[in-house]
Design goal:
single chain; six-stranded antiparallel β-barrel
């Protein structure tokens, strides 16, 4: 019996290449590709296209500019250590907010939450004895391997929806933290 075998034809538009890359960077790249449900090759091609578009659309700056680099943030960040629970369809993921602004937060967690859709956060603000519920979307995901024995994830999120009263309380808590830090630094 002859078995039919599928043979993949090499695309005339594809080329093989070999390079070296930082191990941690490659690990992060593979994680994000997997989270997006894409093959590594596919994700790499998409990334290269994005980088080319970035540099084609913006004039390049001198390598060493005397102009200080500004953050692309609408709101300034403040460092905090607020407990947070991330509600996913697979259950709760516990974490800690490392920094927060009126626009979003950076969350450190030991378990990787589902990141392909919006998430619901329950933020505990210890100094104010309150809990804030917010809908967020993931902006960025990094692997924190500073402690080789315990990998964790840094999940950057953007606030999408917060009840008006809770938003007011959250913004007041952020402002209070900024004010407290300013007093400690002076």
């Amino acid at each position: 019996m002859h078995k039919k075998m599928k043979v993949m034809a090499k695309s005339s538009r594809k080329s093989r290449f070999s390079t070296t890359i930082d191990t941690d960077l490659l690990k992060q790249f593979k994680v994000v590709a997997g989270l997006q449900g894409k093959r590594l090759n596919q994700f790499m091609e998409e990334s290269i296209r994005d980088i080319l578009a970035k540099y084609e659309s913006k004039p390049s700056l001198p390598e060493k500019s005397l102009i200080p680099k500004q953050e692309n943030r609408a709101h300034s960040r403040v460092e905090v250590t607020w407990p947070v629970s991330i509600l996913t369809s697979r259950g709760l993921v516990e974490g800690e907010i490392k920094d927060i602004s009126k626009g979003g937060a950076l969350i450190n967690c030991k378990k990787l939450p589902e990141t392909d859709r919006t998430l619901i956060l329950n933020i505990e603000i210890p100094d104010h004895l309150m809990r804030i519920s917010a809908t967020v979307e993931m902006v960025r995901l990094n692997i924190d391997d500073s402690d080789k024995a315990l990998f964790s994830y840094d999940l950057a999120v953007r606030f999408m929806g917060i009840d008006v009263d809770q938003r007011k309380h959250l913004f007041n808590a952020i402002e209070h933290k900024v004010h407290t830090i300013a007093i400690q630094d002076s």
